[in-house]
Amino acid sequence: MHGAPWARRAALAGALVAGLLATGCGSSRPGFTQTGQGSYYANKFRGRPTASGAPYRPSQMTAAHNTLPFGTRIRVTNVRNGRSVKVTVNDRGPHVAGRIVDVSGKAARRLDLVRAGVVPVRLEVIRAAPRGGSR
Hints:
Number of domains: 1
Mean pLDDT: 85
Strand order of the largest sheet: 1-5-2-4-3-6
Radius of gyration: 17 Å
CATH superfamily: RlpA-like domain
């Protein structure tokens, strides 16, 4: 049983990391804010399944976020021009360092971020995911 203490510590560390990932690094409560870079989905993703299982539809007001539960409503504001949109989280991402949200094509046009591709944004949770919403 010489390795047992090490194995217990490793299991405990793994459980701690899993718990942090499951709860997310931020809060999904209304009023939670986050700032960083925002981008949008390329059209090549049209129709492909999102992490929630719903197909990506550029014409819908949706977004990807790494930790907020699916179904969370957020307001995304383009810090450069002050334009904002309300979107529903239904996917995971973006998977690029420094980026906090990917928005659908429709949301990107309303935010006027298509030409730039990536802009500084502020997001705010305006409605928590319905009970039973998936993480």
